[in-house]
């Protein structure tokens, strides 16, 4: 009798194990579109305000201000950025030009093919940064040729790869040392912001690395509304915009919202904003850990 019932019991057990009424399918995670890295005509048409001037000062010396002035053509394409200072301690404060960035376009394209940089101290020296984009408007490469410290031609190319919810940047150098050149990997949030930045660089002491995490509010980043939002994020500060590489402002053009903090380990820097009626920031304050007063203030004019 045992030999008769055993196969029946075994079959019932197998059947019961193969059918699990509690089993649910894996959740479907929306694919990352990298939309914040792609400037399109539709996205530009949705912009209602364009940044005209950005004024930055340290609270320890509020009279000396760093200024960036933005110019646009009739199609709202950024054509020029003038960078300089205003010293309000002078009897007649005036804008002192330090550098001019000129955006160059091909026909009616909203994406600049290059940007020319001229510093006032070397008016005849023009440095040109070139951009390459794919069919979706994502920047895939930026490159520049300059002279190294020995006076010889040197090249810097940065390649960008978008895959699996991440953006990976790979610099390729010729005539330059790889020391202190960052290799970055960005983790992208579904709502169009950067969740995490893992930055590695080669130094004389070996490979060094740092990880940064970010938080955001729900208001509009003025940089994301510009047609150059995905053109001017760089792996190298040689373009001269003076951003804090690779921290809070390095990738700000490719976040839809405004960053409220960045953290590396237990160290956290926070930001507070004042907004206008259209939810655009007019004032940004930077706070270092433990400080109740801001260390830096940025004013935005549209």
Describe the structure.
The chain has a single domain (41-301), classed as Porin. It is built from 2 helices and 16 strands. It has helices spanning 2-18, 41-45, and strands at residues 53-58, 61-72, 78-87, 95-104, 114-119, 126-133, 139-147, 153-163, 166-174, 182-188, 194-203, 206-220, 257-264, 267-275, 281-287, 296-301. It has a 16-stranded antiparallel beta barrel with strand order 1-2-3-4-5-6-7-8-9-10-11-12-13-14-15-16. A hairpin with a 5-residue loop joins strand 10 (182-188) and strand 11 (194-203).
What is the N-to-C succession of helices and strands? HHEEEEEEEEEEEEEEEE
Name of the top-level CATH class: Mainly Beta
Tell me the span between the first and last alpha carbons.
90 Å
Count of structural domains: 1
Instruction: Please summarize the sheet with the most strands.
Output: 16 strands, antiparallel, barrel
Task: Categorize the overall geometry.
Answer: globular
Lateral arrangement of strands in the main beta sheet: 1-2-3-4-5-6-7-8-9-10-11-12-13-14-15-16
The CATH architecture term is: Beta Barrel
Helix % is: under 10%
Cα radius of gyration in angstroms = 25 Å
